TrEMBL record:
Residues 43-58 have a biased composition (Basic and acidic residues). Residues 39-69 are annotated as: Disordered. It comes from Rhizophagus clarus. GO terms for cellular component: mitochondrial small ribosomal subunit. One of its GO terms (molecular function) is structural constituent of ribosome. InterPro entries: Ribosomal_mS45. This is Eukaryotic mitochondrial regulator protein-domain-containing protein.
Amino acid sequence: MRMISITLKQTSISTSVYTRKQLLCSLCYNHKRTYHSTPALLNKDETPPPPIEEKENADTPQPEAPKVSKRIRRPKYKLWLVNEGKNFTNIYDKPNYLGGSIPFPMNPLFKPQPPLNDRTKEEIWLKFTQEGQIPRKIGIDYGISLKRVEAILKLKKLEKDMVGKGITLQQNLCEKIEKMLGARSFCVEPLTDTLPNVGKPNFETVDENRDFSEKDAAKLLRRPTLAKIREKESKEEFFSLDENSTKDKQMITLVGRDERETNQRFQFKFKTIGKDQNVILRDRDGSLYKIKKELIR
């Protein structure tokens, strides 16, 4: 049989009707086809073959990676569940937060106590309704505050009303959430909230038509007016440089000078302890000054 050498550019094969000659040509030059129409070729990996060195390295045993189907690629969340999210799947017996013991990673300073379980709440409801215990006694026994006891009793009353109306409660969901949050049968919190003593607020209702000036507000608050405060601050800030300089000259008197006692870095001040407190200053140029008592600060 004679082989017919025909290139793809010279042949125009119809995709619907094939002759015997055309079938032979297509079989001989199957590797030159630039199109595909089968599902297997559609999902075929078109990456080039690895070099010889990589093939030799591939023979060495390596840790197994998660197998991913070639035809059906897994979504990204499934790959995350296989790798990083493996520690957070199917764990319902204890708290398993993303931040360790921190429920809210973006707020690490907020660490609330675990809630009370439903069994303890039912005991509190029975002690209040059947045994007649007061909320203070219940709070002392379970280590919870009066506000928490009040909230538990209100929620239990709503729960009993829902059961009386024929509403089915999701007990299984409640148990799962209690395990995830680490619910327990006691708490450690004060019976009442201790608030700081900030004093009573100064409050007075003023009619809209009434003139209420800053003097009236200062009188109500028992404080000086803003104008007096500003005037006092301005007096403390402004002073005369000339007056201070003359006073300093009058109060500081030169006693002597010794050039051998010069010191370009420090000034020494000597103060006597007693009834007459005298201060002697040794300057950098060796001068010795006597400072009066009014200048001592």
